[in-house]
Design brief:
The protein is globular. 29% of the residues lie in helices and 27% in strands. The protein has 743 residues and is α+β, with helices and mostly antiparallel strands. Strands 3-5-1-12-9-10-11 form a 7-stranded mixed beta sheet, sandwiched between helices. Strands 7, 8, 13, 14, 15, 16 and 30 form a 7-stranded mixed beta sheet that branches. Strands 19-27-28-29 form a 4-stranded mixed beta sheet, sandwiched between helices. The protein has 20 helices and 30 strands. Bound molecules: pterin cytosine dinucleotide and molybdenum atom. Molybdenum atom binds next to loops.
Amino acid sequence: RYVGQAVKRLYDDKFVTGKSTYVDDIQISALYAGFVRSPYSHAKIKSIDVTDALKVPGIVAVYTYKDLAPLIKDGIRIWTTYEDPRMWKFVPRKPLADGKVRFAGEPVAIVIGVNKYVVRDAIDKVNVDYEKLPPVVKMEEALEDKVIIHEELKTNVAFDQTFNGGNVEEAFKQADKVIPVEITNNRLIPSPMEPRGIVSRYEGGTLTIWYSTQVPHLARSEFARIFGVPASKIRVIMPDVGGAFGSKVNFMPEEVSVIASSIKLGRAVRWTATRSEEMLASEARHNTFKGEVAVKNDGTVLGIRGDLLVDLGAYLTLTAPLQPAIIPLMVPGPYKIKGVSIRSRAVYTTTPPITMYRGASRPEATFIIERIMSIVADELKLDDVTIRERNLVRANEMPYTNPFGLKYDSGDYLALLKDGIQKLQYYELKKWAEEERKKGRKVGVGMAYYLEISGFGPWEFGEIRVDENGDVLVITGGTPHGQGTETAIAQVVADTLQIDISRIKVIWGDTETVVASMGTYGSRTAAAAASAAMVASKEVLEKMKRIAAGLLNADVEEIEYESGEFYNKKDKSKKVSWNDVARNGYYGKELGISAQIILPGDVTFPYGVHVAVVEVDDYGIPRVLTYKAYDDIGNVINPALAEGQIHGGGVQAVGQALYEEAIINEDGQLTVTYADYFIPTAVEAPKFESYFVEKPHTSTWPTGAKGVGEAALIVGPAVIIRALEDATGKRFTKTPVRPEEIL
Ligand code: MCN
Ligand code: MO
């Protein structure tokens, strides 16, 4: 059996030896693109003069919006699930600024030349005449609508919905106490190792697009719609992708401009974002919850009400709607709360647009509810564990429907809390920290609990092909880009087919190879894609049994399969090997051995408790010394991969809680570079301990897996901030906490 084992990742050799192929490594003859970007966050474009730029030797073309417009049939829109005009006010985004810029860094013109260097020179020679308009940087300012960012919308408020769940009036009536809270997640930059990139080749009326993406099939559909061409004329290939963290489920105007240019020129055109372009391309989070909590003196949290304000930046990206629409639904978390009412608003500001980032709304919701639990504990002089014990949904209430109608599928939240606190030695650590503080050290211990939603349906694709040699190709709708989920999929297939894993190859991410795909995001691949591969494997085995029955002159009902042999259960000496069946699948009567599956499925809810130890030095600089996790993620397919996710997400949680902030100044300019936007390195990484429950509560996907890809970044910030409070005796309600607030 492979499932449950820490099998080494199948394709790591090429990565560790530098032989992987990212978009920028694609070797084809192509022109290079670069962008003229607005220095102002809000301005009218009075004129653009490209004459000097065109004189630079090696420059092939400089296009503005007017040049590309005839090719563009529709703008970049939002995720169709959310595209309800009664809910969202937005303007489909154009590939280049049209008459006006709305954030500093917005692309105004595309410059195309024979190499990067001439392009760089020519960018400086494009003369754009701007008329500055007042920037709108703060969310509160945007709400006032004094300066309107998208004139046609007549307001900066893109979304304004009140989410009412349960009976909030009643909850506040019954309260012994009402506690005010204000909780903020500041703006972050996902920062994958590989920046965004695209190569677009237009040949004989068809487009081939190599694209650093998490969603090649969605990209194909979107590009087909934007350019008004049949999707069959577009092939999107996802090469090796060096990380994405949700930010590459998003289509950029730059990418549409590159494709448009390749069509116009009938040539291949490529673009790879520079680091500073990448910082502008994917920004994330930034929201504030302001409200109050109704509690009983015994620690029962009865109700939560308040206002959520979300910063969208200048345009609505494909995935930005998730924030205002999902955060409220997940605020109740694993707790049984009588009533929750949240007015959720999202506003445009003249800042870089927001996309999704690891956890996409669940980190925000979890930070809100976990901060609430700890604040209530402090106000009522209760312990962090006690307050959670009091409010967790009980196992006999599962499946539980939360006030907003989300159905939590399975789990025993209380048992996990009790076991986790012991396993992670929470109270022992608390005691140790207290002793250390007496000696003058500023150390503290914190915990938080989470419930997340993952394994999103409604379906995923899987295909299995057994060739005439008996070797197996798995074509998955998953699109792994660093997680190693392809290895987990191979493990599941190897177990189902009972063959050696070395005979299996897993491929993905090419719209002309993979029939259909939703992709990898929302921690769904171990649940959805691995399950689709599993079900397709079972179908293949049935086919092989039919072939075996033919070869053994038996009825198919008589055939059993075990470890590479098909045999007649009435007479076990009558058997035929896997390889013989495979060969006969091609040279016999059947027409090949393969199965394609679209497997439907639904969301699942992993949960867990995490603990951190934080120390602050004399300068107020915090460090997370230890980070410990205890999670129920359903069946664990590969503990090493799952643990790796806790480590990666945990390090990003350290960054979000303590170091990372995309600071925008009052003119709307992003003021940070990687010199001061501080991503934790190995030096700042804590020591990790990660455990998964022994008897998991499985999901309804056939693998029984729930997700783990985002867990540590979902709960981590709340855990780390709680430890920081323990170390300093102060209260912190926003991320990141800066040294000046700590001292
Ligand atoms: N796993 C497992 N058993 C389970 C659940 C998961 O063994 N019960 C393993 C899987 O085999 C896989 C990993 O854990 O190797 C994560 O699986 P899963 O939770 O299904 O998440 P996905 O494969 O769908 O990955 C998406 C997730 C998301 S949403 C973000 S954001 C994120 C993350 O993965 N982005 C990443 N981790 C990342 N890791 C890397 N290196 N790069 C990114 O961009
Ligand atoms: Mo994600």
